Amino acid sequence: MEGGAIEADASAFKECFSLTWKNPFVLRLALSAGIGGLLFGYDTGVISGALLYIRDDFKAVDKKTYLQETIVSMAVAGAIVGAALGGWVNDKFGRRFALMSADFLFFCGAVIMAAAPNPGVLILGRVLVGLGVGMASMTAPLYISEASPTKIRGALVSTNGFLITGGQFLSYLINLAFTKVPGTWRWMLGVAGLPALLQFILMFFLPESPRWLYRKGREDEAKKILRKLYPEDEVENEIEDLRSSIEEEVKQEGSSQNINIMKLLKTTAVRRGLTAGVGLQVLQQFVGINTVMYYSPTIIQLAGIASNQTALLLSLVTAGLNAFGSIISIYFIDKTGRRKLLLCSLVGLSLALALLCGVFQESTTHTPVISRQATAQFSSDFTCPDYRSSGYANWDCMKCLKASPDCGFCASPTDKLYPGACLISNSTVKNTCQNQSRLWYTRGCPSRYGWLALIGLALYIIFFSPGMGTVPWIVNSEIYPLRYRGVCGGIAATANWISNLIVAQSFLSLTQSIGTSWTFLIFGGVGVVGFFFVLVFVPETKGLPIEEVEKMLARRALHFKFWDKEENNLPSKTVV
């Protein structure tokens, strides 16, 4: 599999900045299109903080876990539809039109969410935002890939990944900024419309994808754009490769305009590309990343951190590490290749998830006991009904919280690990507890192991971001033949969002039914499976011109003996 790629220059990262300095049009295009990634990241991150305050405003949301999951996952459901439609829109109307449509949908959704008078309207806004995010998620990397010089394609597509993580980091900053402002979550969600509006305006000044134009018969426009993107000594070769690719597909299909789905599935290169591309997108979600991004404040509270603001601040650190990992990806993607980053990423995140599993197991089995005397210090009306009906049995904090969503734990004022009280969970009791210099817990219990959970989360993000965070999108932007690129990219993005929906909709329910530790263990097991999937099914595309990837896939057999070095099936070619 390593042999299927052309060797890239070891200084690819420096070359990226050198070329973009000499030709700023390339970088401007990548950053402008990458705002689609910023929208993706912002929406992923902002809901985690906003949900803490939505629960305070809408009591039904606070009491019903399924409503919390629905608010999060309806954006994902919209993204599934957006990604599926995005493939067709991209092939029919072009990459530029698809991005502008995504911006319009996202802006409308942000406005509706900010003004939502009830959970139903909020969910409607989330669906519209999801439609925009889904369409942008598959269009932005595709557009950047098709308009990038081969030598720096991976690094430029990685800027989209960096903007995704940058959007998540920005969302946590904004969450913190609005914690003391009236209408907290409305500002958090409404501000999301601004980058969508900015990209919509910027796209008026950017060209259509030259490869899409060429395929649609608008050759003169395509050549004009390619001459802006490529150095003079490379542009003619690029045009010739593109022309040959179009002629070959016309010869096979009879038309460069028509897409035959049955032919798509029967084409070896496409089928192998879809196996790798869809597989990576599904793995990206099933190793649990968006549970960390959607629910990171909640996870931190499960680790024993009581304060909403403290949970948000620590989540900001998590988002910052995610953005830092994307920068690492930009540096290494064209230097070490896609597969090595993926494999290192999967090993590291699986070990981090094993650590989280152990930490949460300890945290949930060693929690402060419930003291009848401590509970009696409050009004009898404040006592949790389930604890009273148990005959004041020997409960601990975790037993109290799991007994009912209507119960909370009020820690000892001396030490949060000392015996505490099991009380009714409402704003009056919460304020009474906190006014006595006590900590109030409803999501997780005080633990001496909370700091280890934070280390585990940090390690997970550090290993995930450079590999599984960015590489699946890069591979999917370059692995499909030109004539199927929009459709196949849409299929892969749809698979990503369906997987995202399954994980987002089930995470809180899983933690309640089998526990947080077992949930993380499942994610870790998926990471191990993913390691072998990458070894067998995912080819190396480092340094390959887009038009050459199809030939490599058509000649490449599945690499079941992954311990053997694979010989290059393509004519040798060196990038100077």
TrEMBL record:
The Major facilitator superfamily (MFS) profile domain, residue ranges: 29-542
Pfam families linked to this entry: Sugar_tr
Subcellular location(s) of the protein: Membrane
Cellular component aspect of the GO annotation: plasma membrane
Membrane topology: Multi-pass membrane protein
Keyword Cytoplasm: no
Name of the protein this chain belongs to: Major facilitator superfamily (MFS) profile domain-containing protein
Organism whose genome encodes this protein: Stephania yunnanensis
Taxonomic lineage from the root: Eukaryota, Viridiplantae, Streptophyta, Embryophyta, Tracheophyta
